[in-house]
């Protein structure tokens, strides 16, 4: 079959034809990779081919170069790098030739060129790329399509290269790119598509413009062109120009003082009269400025020019707040039921909330007149908009101002809000009111509230209103669940009881009923999630006098978990997803209950009496979900908090470890994260008996480390390794000769795993992520050296290598080695053995360098 026909067949409405074509294309990629790449690039470049075939050719070619999953992406990159140079040259020529052709093929080619650039530019294998693209911009004669697709290519290429750890563009190349892009952005550019492409390209090129923005003349010119873009006739250009300003607010905040007055004038013009998409982006600019200033406030009073806070928000507040308040009444009908809605009203409220976090008390007198004049507007016409906007405004300013400033306002307004929650005729107003009450409980109710916001005088009315409103429409009930969660979290146990204790049973019962309410799929998922989160918070905040009621929740949740075991029997994707969601929520609830009851010795008995039931149902849950595990594994090992519970875990240890080892076969990174945590806890629960699992687990750990060298996974791997190190030392101290072989296997796995992390990270990243653990590593090696009875050549060699890794990979660790006198005799003894001498000599050299630095 010809490639064109094959590409069209892959888009056939006939599933059988489509599947056959897809299988053929996959086979070609595996068996005739070079020929396929050249063929796809030629198809993309050929203007005589059908549009749909050209588009798919480009997308398939792009997918042979990149993937979301790290391991898959690395394999594709290596496949391209190892390919014939002549093939790659032909593909690149075809891609460049596609720029400027009719249709969207030029856009697709731009995406593919950027992916190739991300591979080849760092390797200096496509040095002529930037100049070739710039030549297109000055070509004569030229076409609109050529300039547009070239600018898109420059933008996508900058985006790809900007995601890399190092800068691979020379300053000359950066200067040339910025010149070409800014020239395409000028207001005298006649082609709207070209000007828009240039503006979008600038957003990505800004990553490399630090030197240019340090030059006043260059920066002023770029800012002038961008600001002119916010006034362009095309709304697409106006929107893209505001996106550029947002990028500058984030990346070049310290360069903004000279431009803020003009930008605010442009903001007023845009917000008061432009299209919604443009207004949203203008508001996003101010959100970005506010977030930047929040970050800088967190840095303290720094004198570093790169972290100075210019307080743009506080300066603009008297003018910005009225502008934002005006936008709050631009709600969409029915938006309260759409969780994904984003409009001018929502954006303005979000911006107001961030500004309140920055400005603190100063925002209150600017907002409260709007609140008081609108919140009690009588029903009729569009007055609901005023009431909802006023409530939204009040809720938006609760985080930032001090409790002393807000306390009296909240005290006087809470009763009105509770009445509105029960009686307002408009669902949108009730929805926002429930959210605002939740915000009050989150930010004004609690230990910092003086006088206390809630007490015997008003708590009964609060609970009554919430339990009534939780029966309202699902979207309102969802916000009420949030309010209950925050209400419970603000109380603390005192003398074995809490102000919430009398309401515990009724609140939990209402939340369980809410979690079971019928609704459409999306609403039901959101409502169930909020209801279970509220239950969890109520349990966490519960006092000792409610312990018997907490214990009684265990058989209830175990029963509900058992009910879920056959939910996926229908075989549909929807049924499996639903089963997964509910099981995750119920397991999370079990986790919280077990944690809470484990806080005191007297309450642990409540857990232990149901331990077998919990473990049985969890293993059944594992059987339902062979490819993933979330809280379930953690729940199982949480039963290890007492000696008697450990025995329960050991009873199931073989089953749990089988599950965890199967989980590591799944390639999903987030699943590995949870499994790493679970294995770390299992090492504690099993104690010395965990050694028998190391032989099976060690290769899995090595593979996991190879896949996931990112910070979030390292944290969990390190946690697990530290638990294993403690276990190894405990075994050594026990002096059980029968366990010596197992302990050395455990040690070897630990040492090799640390070595894998040191060798897999750059010196800078190793310094950042691993240096805090250097003292414990030296302690571990010292314990190995002290264990003369269990001495093992392989373990000693790996120990010496790890000492060398610590010394060579981490900065300023010489003092650590000075504090460890065992190092010198340990390495000297190894140097006397020919099988370990080389490693010991290298480690000695590295440590000597560290001591001198």
Automatic annotation (TrEMBL):
GO terms for biological process: protein import into nucleus. Its main location: cytoplasm. It holds the Pfam family HEAT_EZ. One of its GO terms (cellular component) is cytoplasm. One of its GO terms (molecular function) is small GTPase binding. The keyword Transport applies. Keywords: Cytoplasm, Protein transport, Repeat, Transport. Residues 21-101 form the Importin N-terminal domain. PROSITE patterns: IMPORTIN_B_NT. It is found in: Cytoplasm. SUPFAM superfamilies: ARM repeat. InterPro entries: ARM-like, ARM-type_fold, IMB1_TNPO1-like_TPR, Importin-beta_N, Importin_beta. This is Importin N-terminal domain-containing protein. It comes from Chlorella variabilis (Green alga). The lineage of its organism: Eukaryota, Viridiplantae, Chlorophyta, core chlorophytes, Trebouxiophyceae.
